[in-house]
Amino acid sequence: MSETLIQEKVLKTKAAPITAIILAAGKGTRMMSPLPKVLHPVAGQPMILRSIQAARGAGASEIRLIVGHGQNLVRNVVESTGVICFEQKEQLGTANAVKSADIENLEGEVLIMNGDHPLVEAQDLKNLLDNFRELKADIAVVTAIVKKPGDLGRIVRQKGVLKAIVEARDASPATLGIREINTGFYIMKAELLKNLLPEIKNNNTKGEYYLTDLITLAQENEYRIEAICGSRRIAHGVNNQAELSKATKYLFKKKAEKLMEDGVLMIDADSVYIEESVKVAAGSVIYPNVFLRGRTEIGAFCVLEPQVYISDCVIGQSVQIKQGSYLEKSEIHHNCSVGPYARLRPETLLKEEAHIGNFVELKKTVFGKKSKAGHLAYIGDAEIGDECNIGCGAITVNYSADKKKYKTKIGNKVFVGSDVQLIAPIEIGDEAILGAGSVLTKSVPARALAVARGKQFIKENYVAADGQTSSSDKKEI
Ligand code: UD1
Ligand code: MG
Question: Is the pLDDT of residue 4 over 70?
Answer without folding.
Answer: no
